[in-house]
Amino acid sequence: MRIATCQIVFLFLSTAAAAAETLDGERLALAHCGRCHVIGDVNKFGGIGSTPSFPVLRAYPDWKARFEAFYTEPPHIAVTQIEGVTEPFTASLPPPIHPVVLTEAEVEAIMGFVAQMEPKDIWGGARPHRR
Fold this sequence. Notes:
With 131 residues, this protein is mainly alpha-helical. The chain contains 4 helices and 2 strands, in the order H-H-H-E-E-H. The longest helix has 32 residues, at 2-33. The termini are far apart. Residues 9-20 have low confidence and may be disordered.
């Protein structure tokens, strides 16, 4: 009986930790990514019109690779710093807008949030082609 109780407590704590990480990922995504991207219903009328929403990005087969390396691709490379990973911006080439500064743990929290997100059905039920 005692083992079952410990397993239930562990399951509850694991579920609570996962829920907290998802909420933290959503909060971080909204704060840092929501100025350009629609994150979900929380800012469905936000973002820049030509910028794909997170549910659309989540629909791509390579979504995880895109999120893992987003800061290495334009336009993110010009405005994003990942502490301990990217080089600091130089005075001669400052970011054109207020920079996005994240830690690796924060990027992982955002990815955890995106992983549980329902992908947008942009393919109409068909399987997308791999690039």
